Amino acid sequence: MHRGKGMKFVGDSRVPANRKPNIPKDYSEYPGKTEAFWPNFLLKEWMVGAVFLVGFLCLTIAHPSPLERIADPTDTGYIPMPDWYFLFLYEMLKYSYASGPYNLIGLVIPGIAFVGLLLAPFIDRGPERRPLKRPLATGFMLLAVSAVFYLTWEAAAHHDWKKAAEQGAIRPQVTIDKNSDGYKIFSKQTCITCHGDNLQGGAVAPALTNVPFNAAKIEDIAQHGYQKMPPNQFKGSKADLKKLADFIAGLKSNK
């Protein structure tokens, strides 16, 4: 309508004349279909989150994180193992299509999958909520969950947990006198290539500190072998062998 000289007043029916308080709508006519976000739905979300949080805290108390020895860059036989939630990626990188020259693919594909999961609410904005009526989203989700479970199982089933525990075990500190005659004899033998310059052991040989053998048994092992160790590894006189055996038998921790 027109009033005055060229002045116009426009009315908008979307703006209510009487403001009402912010009260949730009454959904009693639609039982089981929907509910108010605050406080009904949000309270349920908090309750479920609290249950998972308490369960996770109980799990960390019952099974604390395992500690291993200090990283040793000279120990090339150590096999690192990621945490359980990265085991599927660890296993996938073992396959030829995701390792070597295709290592980039093995890292990019999981990244695309996680980004797609984050963007799913913005990409798939259809009104349907039933899984059967959303075949693409349901299919990709089932494929991803199956792949994660399968790869995690494969990584855990084929890992040598006993050997990994021995490699990562915290060993008591032992003082090694590298100026002693026993160490000089040890460094001249082939023993040092397998047991390490600090007698810490490696991928194929155990540590020579805190061994549960006396000097006589160590002499016998050097001559006749033990388990995977072949015989006749020591090359030298009996006097040098005795000095070496006494040196190794004396490498005990102070605890």
TrEMBL record:
Any Pfam family: Cytochrome_CBB3
InterPro entries associated with the record: Cyt_b/b6_C, Cyt_b/b6_C_sf, Cyt_c-like_dom, Cyt_c-like_dom_sf, Cytb/b6-like_sf, Cytochrome_c550/c551-like
PANTHER family per UniProt: CYTOCHROME C-553-LIKE, MENAQUINOL-CYTOCHROME C REDUCTASE CYTOCHROME B_C SUBUNIT
Subcellular localization, as worded in the UniProt entry: Membrane
Membrane topology: Multi-pass membrane protein
Lineage: Bacteria, Bacillati, Bacillota, Bacilli, Bacillales
Gene3D superfamilies linked: Cytochrome Bc1 Complex, Chain C, Cytochrome c-like domain
Protein name in UniProt: C-type cytochrome
Main location, first listed in the record: membrane
Occurrences of domain Cytochrome c (ranges): 177-252
Domain Cytochrome b/b6 C-terminal region profile: 27-153
Keywords tagged on the record: Electron transport, Heme, Iron, Membrane, Metal-binding, Transmembrane, Transmembrane helix, Transport
Spans through the membrane: 46-63, 102-123, 135-153
